[in-house]
Amino acid sequence: MKLTDHFNSKEFDCQCGCGTGEISSDLVNKLEKVRVAYDHPMRINSGIRCLDHNRSIGSSDTSSHIIGLAADVGCTDMASRMSLLALFGKHFKRMGIHKDFIHVDVDYDKPEGVFVY
Fold it and tell me: Range of 100's domain?
């Protein structure tokens, strides 16, 4: 199902195929704003995750992905990472930097800031 002009629900589904949960509309709408400003495709590496899948990839049981409040956006080069971080910073109060992706979330129960993997 189409969520915004540039994102559909399938992109955010748990990668194990279980069909668990729903992705946050707040998260998706913020991602759409960034996508429009970025003017390039953005690949969602991970959206919502069931607890089993989350554990299978070694992520914490308190991950914001479990409750549909987080997404990992693929990013592997310095120039794209710099552009995306500047845009994400205008819309998200919490980001994580990994060599292969940028994590963003709208989990207001977690501390604000930027973390690294």
Answer: 9-116
